[in-house]
Amino acid sequence: MLFAWLKRYMPRSLYGRAALILVMPVVTLLLIASVVFLQRHLEDVTRQMTLAVSREIDLVVDRAERVETQQQLLAEMRPLLDALATRMRFPAPDDVPDGDILRGFDLTGGVVTETIRARIPELRAIELLDNRNSRFYLDTRLGPIELIFDRRRLTPAAPHQLLVTMLFFGILMTAISFLYMRNQLRPITRLARAAQAFGHGRTVDYTPSGATEVRAAGQAFLDMRARIERQIEQRTMMLSGVSHDLRTPLTRLRLSLSLLDEEEAAPMRRDVDEMQRLLDAFLEFSRGVAESGFESLDPAELLREVVDDQRRAGLDVELVECEGQGEMTLRPMAIRRAAENLIANAMRYGTRAEVSVSLTPKSLRIRVEDDGPGIAADQRGEAIKPFVRLDPARNQDKGTGVGLGLAIVADIARAHGGTLRLGESGRLGGLCADIVIGR
């Protein structure tokens, strides 16, 4: 439960996580060193030095109890005070503070106050306002006494110096480590950008660099990209070649059928037309997105044009919703082909179709819904595979097709770094097809 809660606040990027791994040990080390220094070294040394000063203060209190006047006390203590570099005077009662006066950021003032008060019950107030002098006010039989000691006799000089030094060098070494880490992570970032661009259908220049493992991963990516590009090129050439070569015999068949009696040639002409549709589908699948480059465009305007074209063709298609405004970098011809395929698929199995567009800061969604029989949930994964025909109940009396319509749409969505999702339409009761592309 704790790890799940912490995971929500952890950085998601590799750079952020590496920075956290780098900073956490430095911060932890500084905190531990600071605590150990304050408790084990600074406080112990301060307490020992304060105990030595408390004995001198106790000596002054003891002498004050033995003499009769202030002048006698000053005369007796002058040789000792000069040797100890200590000053003593008798202040007016109004000049004596009512309580201890310490600086808020004094690292050792609390230890000094605690140690002195534990040994000198006659102590009235302590004044520690700077690093030079410390003043102690005592209540004696002769009146209040003010003792002024050099602060360096109570605490180590500049006790914060070690902390400042650790903090400075900690920040310095962390900054140097950040620069080095950024140089090491830059090849990984370049590899991620190249892979992301290839996933969106773009090929960017990339040269492996960095550590040995990163170079190996980069070279593996280049090999994989080249192999995929060769496979796509071979598939395109194969389908285009087969489709192109079959057009010549189909043309000869059409010419031969034109010489026959119309009634006798009608069934054979329908077969030739069906073969022509299959060839056209093969060519469309083989082209994929190769004929369309990326452009910055308004997806809603593009879909509006597609719907208008379909309505002029006599189809019952309506653009029901356009949510969000703005432009997005897409392949216009490919997106148009995908939308037309979804609309054609909807009208093939239904009587009407509704199109909606939603553009958010994170994604683009193009939705086509129909009032047909839909696709069963267990068949939706198969429906987007090439050359797959579903159960005849889906096809009704509209023909079987070649099984490439949704496959072409899925290819176009993947070429944009998106996906094709199939579901049930809540508005029309048929199939709901969504093209979702991240921005």
Could you please describe the fold and organization of this structure?
- By secondary structure, the protein is α+β, with helices and mostly antiparallel strands.
- The protein folds into three domains: 9-161, Beta-Lactamase (2-Layer Sandwich); 219-287, Orthogonal Bundle (Helix Hairpins); 290-438, Histidine kinase-like ATPase, C-terminal domain (Heat Shock Protein 90), CATH 3.30.565.
- The protein has helices at residues 2-7, 14-66, 70-83, 109-119, 161-199, 212-258, 262-287, 299-312, 332-349, 380-383, 392-395, 405-415, and strands at 87-89, 101-102, 123-128, 133-140, 143-150, 295-297, 317-323, 328-330, 353-359, 363-370, 419-424, 431-438.
- The strands form three sheets. It has a five-stranded mixed sheet with strand order 1-5-4-3-2. A five-stranded mixed sheet has the order 7-9-10-12-11.
- Strand 9 and strand 10 (363-370) form a beta hairpin.
- It is rod-shaped, with a radius of gyration of 43 Å.
Jot down its keywords.
five-stranded mixed β-sheet, alpha+beta, Heat Shock Protein 90, 3 domains, 56% helix, Beta-Lactamase, 439 residues, 12 strands, Helix Hairpins
